[in-house]
Amino acid sequence: MPIDATLPYDDQNVFAKILRGELPCKKVYEDEWTLAFHDIAPLAPVHILVIPKGAYVSWDDFTAKASDEEIAGFSRAVGHIAREHGLVELGYRLLVNLGREGGQEIPHLHVHLFGGRPLGPMIAR
After folding, report:
1. 85 a catalytic residue
2. Dihedral, CA atoms, 79, 90, 58, 17, nearest 10 degrees?
3. Facing residues of 29 across strands?
């Protein structure tokens, strides 16, 4: 069920549990600000979830509360992961679902990185 991105952060969400080591993940990248891992139900040959380590519900929450260093580090990590997975030359897609109408299901900011095949139209018509 999509969530309201204006609600307070819920520290029992699945990504918070992964960050605390309570749930496993197939990690592909980690630094001071970011954790990235393979999606458990991939929608493309490459489907990686990239999450900030801070407790942010949405992009608005992240850009309003995170430090400039954290925002830059997270953004750079997304680019680094795409390069490391050979996605830059042929292209890839970043997707962030935000709030109820955006289809966000987990109340922790996360970027889906898709690649490895033609991805079709951005939104079904």
Report:
1. no
2. -80
3. 36
Q: Residue written as tokens 């990686």?
A: 48
* In the predicted structure, residue 76 carries a pLDDT above the cut 80: yes
Specify the amino acid at residue 42.
Answer: P
DSSP class of residue 8 equals P
In sequence order, what DSSP letters do the residues of 8-49 get, joined into one string? PP-TTSHHHHHHTTSS---EEEE-SSEEEEE-SS-SSSEEEE
Please tell me which residue in 38, 47, 108, 110 is annotated as part of the active site. Answer: 110
Residue-level pLDDT at 123 = 74
Taking 80 as the threshold, does the pLDDT of residue 37 lie above it?
yes
Mean pLDDT, the chain, whole residue set = 94
Tally of CB atoms within 10 A around 84: 13
